Amino acid sequence: MKTIINGVECKTQKQAILEYLKTGKQISQAEAYELCGCQRLGSIICILRKKGYRIYNVKFEAKNRFGNYTRFSKYALGNTRNEIYNLENES
Length: 91
Known about the structure:
Strand content: 25-35%
Number of helices: 4
CATH class: Mainly Alpha
Number of domains: 1
Distance between the termini: 31 Å
Helix content: 25-40%
Structural class: alpha+beta
Radius of gyration: 14 Å
Number of strands: 5
CATH architecture: Orthogonal Bundle
Strand order of the largest sheet: 3-5-4
Shape: globular
């Protein structure tokens, strides 16, 4: 199964997550699993941060299917387009 985001065919989960974040959207663990089968979003976020991407986590609280409140994070990309271009075109 191919994952296409923003017209880009993503070959890895890391690439799919990064392309999704580039759209300006936030992503949670559940959304990452649905998008590309990623079960360790935190690990991919850590790798992207080490490469220089500024990724922020935003805390949320919502009710789960049992009616109890639960907390979770969503991640968002904080780099500008120029910064992203420079990161992707470093030699």
